[in-house]
């Protein structure tokens, strides 16, 4: 899956499912500050990511993510590993 499609899907569900202001989403924006999600929201996000991309993100994955770019890259790498 192309990165552009991953970004579009992720941004779409963040805006629609998690009510994130789309104007605040940028590659270098701080993921946790921008999203302001609690632990239950992260669980919901894991479910949405799995249903959209067929990959699972764990707690360790989220700890390594600082920016939205990190988030997209993690999903992209998980998809590539799954398809390898």
From TrEMBL:
This is Acyl carrier protein. It comes from Chryseobacterium luteum. It comes from the Bacteria. Residues 4-79 form the Carrier domain. Gene3D superfamilies: ACP-like (1.10.1200.10).
């Amino acid at each position: 899956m192309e990165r552009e499609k991953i970004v579009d899907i992720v941004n779409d569900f963040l805006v629609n499912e998690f009510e994130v202001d789309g104007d605040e989403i940028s590659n270098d924006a701080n993921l946790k500050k921008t999203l302001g999600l609690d632990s239950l929201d992260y669980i919901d996000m894991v479910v949405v990511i799995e249903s959209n991309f067929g990959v699972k993100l764990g707690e360790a994955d989220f700890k390594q993510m600082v920016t939205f770019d990190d988030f997209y890259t993690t999903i992209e790498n998980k998809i590539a590993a799954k398809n390898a």
